Amino acid sequence: MAQMGNDPRLASMLVRAKTPDEQATAAWLSAILEEPPRTQGGGDLRSIFDSRNGNWRQRSSQLLKRMNARGGELDILLAMPLLASGFADRIARRRGAEGRYQLANGMGAMLEQDDAMTRHEWLIAPLLLQGSQSPDARILLALPLDVEDLVARMPHLLTESDSVEWG
Q: What's a Gene Ontology MF term here (predicted)?
């Protein structure tokens, strides 16, 4: 992973990519996350994924060269497991109706109440901003998540335990 020369989370995603389409998609996602668009928060990664930013294209090509891969077709359907490989702790479940989410790492995160992404119970939020004014991080980029599909593809991400507490 150190040979990738980028953030360990992004390197994990790149290393996991095996097929040409996965490699192209992982490189594109890495380029987006290294140089994210300026949004007001809650950006839907699906809409950004389809933009053809020249800087992202150049960075994506550099990453593919580093991976010794030619790459294939970009496929947003491959984004969920790729992002989960590097950002498993940023899988988020909605809590309440005010755009608040609980991340897998225990932290809170939020979207603006009127953000269309709040209708999704599960998200993966690879880009967060932790401010000093709120205990919850602000979600800057997210992808809706089908948690059942993710568990079927990546069962190692789920641990189940029973516990009893009393005091």
A: helicase activity
